[in-house]
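Catalogue entry: protein
Contents: sequence, fold tokens
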Amino acid sequence: MTTLLIVDDEHEIRENLIEFFELKQFKTYSAANGFEALEFLEHQSIDIVIIDLFMPVKDGLETITELRKGWPDVKIIAMSGGPARLTHNNLGDDLLYAATEIGADASLQKPFSLIEAGDTVKNLLAA
């Protein structure tokens, strides 16, 4: 069974993704920030990490860098909508590009549909 770790400081986003992927027969876990995610990975094998870029404690870019060093085989999907106060520029897109440059395998621009998230995971598993 494929295992996913959803990392986002927004509880509702984590819960929506968990519910969706569990219906698709994935074993799904969650963490509220990068620090929790890295601690979790010390004790649990994960196939795919879906991680937000804007989080307190340890942000997504820093966490992706550490994931690549400690768990090079884990697939990573970065997600971001950019900060709400900057909706008229492309900071979210720039950060998603940066995330793929430092090791994310794919990205999702918020808001995204659950179907889009599912397709992204399916494509990574097929690669």
Remarks:
- The chain is about 45% helix and 20% strand.
